[in-house]
């Protein structure tokens, strides 16, 4: 094996695009049910994933992490556990052919007093070199939303794109736009490559 000379131009290339290529390993029964549908506290979180042209992305995978309705972040081992009793705070759902995702979850409580409750979201999709991170905020506590450090750092239009819409049935609607004029604001964490 020869070493490249110092004059060789080495161009960085992506290792692989992220995406739902491993259908045998990623989905599992009840992956989108953080609580069983129909339980007293269950809330449907749903939406669509769109590309920059407004076309639905049919093969995205959405993951969510959240505290329970009391704001407690689960420390239980086994986030894949779906026993109908243990709230692990984690779910995963593959978008359907129309780009729709759906979760059965609870309204997250605030993890700290006075803070706006939110759901952390990770998006995997074809063409992305790395996963994307964002948040879904609940629409009701306008005082907490106004005081939230992340939301306060954004322009009003961007801020509003992180707040879900509450349906008459109590469900939460949150659409994800990967690019374009109404692009969902995405977050970068330390150590996360863009």
Automatic annotation (TrEMBL):
Family annotation (NCBIfam families): protocat_alph (TIGR02423)
Coiled coil: none
Record domain Intradiol ring-cleavage dioxygenases: where: 42-179
Keyword tRNA-binding belongs to the record: no
Keywords on record: Dioxygenase, Oxidoreductase
Record family assignment: Belongs to the intradiol ring-cleavage dioxygenase family.
Membrane spanning residue stretches: none
Gene3D superfamilies according to UniProt: Aromatic compound dioxygenase
UniProt name for this protein: Protocatechuate 3,4-dioxygenase subunit alpha
Statement: the UniProt record of this protein carries the keyword Oxidoreductase: yes
Superkingdom in the source lineage: Bacteria
EC number: 1.13.11.3
UniProt-listed Pfam families: Dioxygenase_C
Any GO MF annotation of the entry: ferric iron binding
